[in-house]
């Protein structure tokens, strides 16, 4: 499927026009909220995964940490997707030809599927019923995938 | 003890997908680091 026409359309769409024309809107509603949301998402991921690894908050049950952090994860993900679409629309054609944009999108897709189809259903139950090595394996994979989303995202700006 | 329990289907999928993500991540970032090192060598010798 050829995606270039979609990216060309996105750049000429209303969102693309606003982002291109008004730098202040792009910087405030786009970049700043995107980065703050990324910080919240990264924080929720790290809190959950470092707790699963037994590094932090050992006095709090991991079920409680995972439940609380997941609520913030969902909120942050919503803001990230909304502001990300807005920002990408303004420079859609440049993004289309950027390898790191596609690397980030791939990592993001894998991350979202991993969280909602595997990690969350797994962590919903009693963690005592899950073998400790599996909890740690899931935590390491989760940190790696969201690190990849963040790192490839930053790399877009330098490529 | 949970150690003696066999894995549920979800746990098996979680283990396999986590392992796959870790392997893919290591391979991807190794290639990226190697690529950057080659670029730096070409630029600065």
From TrEMBL, chain A:
Domain DUF6644 stretches: 6-159
Pfam families referenced in this protein's UniProt entry, alphabetically: DUF6644
UniProt entry keywords in alphabetical sequence: Membrane, Transmembrane, Transmembrane helix
Keyword presence, Membrane: yes
Transmembrane segments: 33-54, 75-95, 101-122, 134-156
Record-given protein name: DUF6644 domain-containing protein
Species whose genome carries this gene: Pseudohongiella acticola
């Amino acid at each position: 499927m050829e995606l270039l026409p979609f990216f060309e359309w996105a750049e000429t769409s209303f969102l693309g026009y606003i982002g291109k024309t008004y730098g202040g809107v792009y910087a405030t509603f786009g970049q700043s909220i995107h980065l703050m949301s990324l910080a919240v998402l990264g924080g929720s991921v790290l809190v959950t995964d470092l707790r699963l690894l037994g590094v932090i908050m050992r006095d709090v049950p991991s079920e409680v940490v995972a439940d609380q952090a997941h609520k913030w994860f969902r909120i942050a993900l919503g803001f990230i997707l909304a502001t990300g679409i807005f920002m990408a629309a303004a420079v859609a054609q440049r993004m289309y030809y950027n390898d790191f944009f596609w690397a980030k999108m791939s990592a993001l897709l894998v991350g979202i599927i991993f969280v909602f189809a595997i990690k969350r259903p797994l962590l919903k139950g009693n963690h005592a019923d899950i073998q400790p090595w599996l909890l740690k394996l899931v935590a390491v994979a989760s940190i790696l995938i969201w690190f990849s989303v963040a790192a490839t995202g930053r790399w877009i700006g330098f490529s | 003890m949970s150690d003696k329990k066999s894995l549920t289907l979800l746990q098996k999928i979680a283990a396999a997908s986590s392992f796959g993500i870790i392997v893919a991540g290591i391979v991807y970032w190794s290639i990226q680091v190697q690529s950057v090192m080659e670029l730096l060598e070409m630029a600065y010798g």
